[in-house]
Design a protein that fits this description.
The chain is mostly helical. It has six helices and two strands.
Amino acid sequence: MRTAWQASDEEILHGLATIETQKNLLRLSEFELVREADIRGLAGAHGYNTTNELLQCTQNITKAEARRRITAAKDVLPGRSPSGDALPAALPETAKALAEGAISADHIAVIQKTLAG
């Protein structure tokens, strides 16, 4: 794309949509790493008491944001039992939409809140 001031309206709208989808897909990758760090117990192995604390310190985020990421990762990604068996995602349709880049972390939070209520 040319610089924004030279772009057509369509190019600007397409660029915005593309960037949003890319951000959503990056969030999925982040959730996969958060989920795996939690499953592996990396917090304790690296001097932290909880995964929440690990994320706060290593990602420079708030306690609330760390909690949101951990909870979202647990809900939209499959887990593993202690024996290593795959466990299904709690929100498989939400997981599918995230994998398509169609929803954001904010959408996930609204879905979680709605289902909890």
